[in-house]
Amino acid sequence: MKLKSLFICQACGYSAPKWMGRCPDCNGWNTLAEETVTASPHTRISDSEIIPLMLDEIEYEKGERFLTGIGEFDRVLGGGVVPGSVVLIGGDPGIGKSTLLLQVAERITSGSRNVLYISGEESPSQIKIRSGRLNVSAKPIYILSETSIDDILEHLQKTMYGALIVDSIQTMFTSGISSAPGSVSQVRETASILMKYAKKNSIPVFIVGHVTKDGTIAGPRVLEHIVDTVLYFEGDRGHPYRILRSVKNRFGSTHEIGVFEMREGGLEEVVNPSSLFLSERTAGSAGSVVVTSLEGSRPILTEIQALVSSSPFGIPKRGAIGVDYNRLLLLVGVLDKRVGIHIQGQDIFVNVVGGLELSEPAIDLSIIAALTSSFREIPIDSSTVVFGEVGLAGEVRGVTSAEVRVKEAAKLGFKRCIIPERNANQISVNTVEVIGVSTVKNAIDIMFH
Question: Is 55 within 8 Å of 24 (Cβ atoms)?
Answer without folding.
Answer: no
